[in-house]
Design a protein that fits this description.
single chain, transmembrane helix, about 60% helix, five-stranded antiparallel beta sheet, AarF/ABC1/UbiB kinase family protein, Phosphorylase Kinase, domain 1
């Protein structure tokens, strides 16, 4: 670790202390790493009043672009942090100065190999937006087409890599002192951020996503996706078609328009989930523009999610199970799609899900607040140490954003009525959701869940039998105690026989030999005394050693085996 990294760690520690996290840095040994005494920092009055989640957001915001981006990435991963932190980090905004125009020109020249005037007829000097990673400018191509240019900030990749090294060092320090860090360790969270940020730094990935969305939505007139200009794009510069539109403002829209726009948003969302398997990961109002004729335009494809066909079917099953308040199916589905850290208490998991469904589904589905329902289900999965795949966590965030827009536009919209055709299409050939009663539907859902699990479980058992690894363990408390006592008695009997043999052997070996005390052989008496002392010590250890002694005997026997 170089001097620059140490200075950065010191800066982080001071800012952390100012926001009320000084105890964490001290426990982690940050000041010992820096080779000096802890510097005193006064906790701000604002930090004393605010919640931990809000203080954490302010802490990241003060640390700059890398940490702001870390917070924004974490806000899309409800499987990594508690809901309170996720909601707070969702409000984290970039607050960075614009790149000077000459730096923008230099970046374009370095990325595309030509001067700006050789590539564009005009570049607007005022940026449309300035974020922590990139800046966006309007421009006109040499052919006269209006475009937008997304230009990566100079040196941002190197700065992020340097901060990632510091983050890894801090993560290792935290792991050494924090007893419980949740499903993901600090190092695991840094690894997740590393993958996400480097995907976002490579604009070729975003261009690929845009082309995929453009292909998927080419026959859907209600949705517009910008075209990519490949010849004017690279890893650090992305040039796209300029789309004229405005942010959706329900207050200035007629009721008919609001209803139509809401239906278009819902239609686009379900098509992405159930037809395409490719969905926008951050559909907040700033990334959705309203065009003429109530058409929609999607922007910013740096974060997208992908669902396989089995994942789509699982999603439908989960929604149906939630709608039917079938806690058993919900528990099995979440357990199956997740990756438990250890064997989870499925019964306890089911009971907690039943309580959540009872709380959130008291009457009709139209009154359900999906935001809190999804949040509580994900929190419950974290509680039972079940790692939900990131695609589902990202889908949760996207669903919450979409629901927020829908409620603002047209709260009376019947989401279930719109969603039902997609569910019927995906589950065709299995059962018809419109014809079956709730009890039979619940039974079929459970059978479906168990039927999907059964082949994998049987395959594992057969494979274990074939390779000789199959074993059956029967545990009963009384048998365990009896087994433990029998082992202890066996050890005592064995040591007693050894002691008796020692006594007899010593007497026979030394009885006819000097030295003698009168007619009594001294060595024989010494051998008998040693044997008696050994046996007495073993007996005392057994009677008064308690559980420690018995466990030690058991461990000894296991090692011998």
């Amino acid at each position: 670790m170089n001097l620059q990294d140490l200075n950065r760690i010191r800066q982080i520690a001071l800012i952390a202390a100012r926001h009320g996290f000084g105890e964490v840095t001290e426990r982690a040994g940050v000041w010992r790493l820096l080779g000096g005494r802890k510097e005193k920092v006064e906790v701000s009055d604002e930090a004393r009043r605010e919640s931990t989640a809000r203080r954490f957001r302010l802490f990241l915001a003060e640390l700059g672009p890398t940490f702001i981006k870390l917070g924004q990435v974490l806000s899309t991963r409800a499987d990594l942090l508690p809901a309170e932190f996720v909601e707070e980090l969702a409000t984290l905004q970039d607050n960075v100065e614009a790149i000077p125009l000459e730096d923008v020109h230099a970046q374009i020249r370095d990325a595309l190999g030509k001067d700006v005037h050789e590539l564009f007829a005009q570049v607007d000097p005022e940026p449309l937006a300035a974020a922590s990673i990139a800046q966006v400018h309007r421009a006109v191509t040499l052919e006269g087409e209006e475009v937008v240019i997304k230009v990566q900030r100079p040196g941002i990749a190197q700065r992020i890599d340097a901060d990632l090294g510091v983050l890894r060092s801090l993560a290792r320090l935290l792991e050494a002192v924090v007893e419980e860090t949740g499903i993901y360790t600090p190092s695991g969270i840094v690894d997740e951020f590393d993958r996400a940020i480097h995907e976002e730094l490579d604009f070729i990935n975003e261009a690929t996503n845009i082309r995929a969305f453009l292909e998927n939505h080419k026959d859907r007139p209600y949705l517009k996706v910008p075209r990519v200009h490949a010849a004017l794009s690279s890893r650090t510069v992305l040039t796209m078609e300029f789309i004229r539109g405005e942010k959706i403002n329900p207050a200035v829209l007629a009721e008919a328009d609001r209803k139509q726009i809401a239906q278009n948003i819902l239609e686009a969302s379900f098509r992405q989930l159930f037809d395409d398997g490719l969905f926008h990961g951050d559909p907040h109002p700033g990334n959705v523009l309203l065009m003429e004729g109530n058409r929609l335009a999607l922007l910013d494809f740096g974060v997208v999610g992908r669902l396989t066909r089995p994942m789509q079917e699982t999603l439908v099953m989960l929604c149906l199970a939630v709608a039917l308040k079938d806690s058993d199916s919900v528990a099995r589905i979440l357990y199956r799609v997740g990756v438990p850290d250890a064997r989870a208490n499925l019964m306890g998991f089911r009971n907690d899900i039943e309580a959540i469904l009872g709380q959130h589904l008291p009457t009709t589905l139209g009154q359900v607040d999906a935001r809190t329902l999804l949040r509580d289900l994900l929190d419950l999965a974290v509680k039972y140490r079940i790692r939900i795949p990131k695609e589902y966590a990202l889908l949760s965030r996207a669903s919450i954003s979409t629901e927020g827009m829908l409620r603002g536009l047209y709260p009376e919209l019947n989401i279930i009525e719109v969603a039902l055709p997609y569910a019927k299409e995906l589950m065709a050939g299995r059962y018809d959701p419109t014809q079956l009663q709730g009890g039979l539907m619940r039974t079929l859902l459970r059978f479906q869940s168990m039927a999907q699990d059964l082949p994998t479980q049987l395959s594992q058992i057969l494979l274990d039998l074939e390779t000789g690894k199959f074993s059956v363990t029967v545990r009963a408390e009384q048998f365990d105690k009896l087994n433990e006592n029998l082992r202890s008695v066996a050890v005592i009997a064995f040591l007693g026989l050894c002691a008796c043999g020692f006594i007899v052997g010593a007497f026979i070996a030394f009885a006819p030999r000097p030295p003698m005390y009168g007619n009594t052989p001294v060595l024989g008496i010494v051998g008998i005394a040693l044997a008696a002392a050994l046996f007495g010590a073993v007996l005392t250890w057994y009677l008064f050693g308690g559980r420690f002694g018995k466990v030690s005997v058991t461990r000894f026997l296991k090692k011998r085996r």
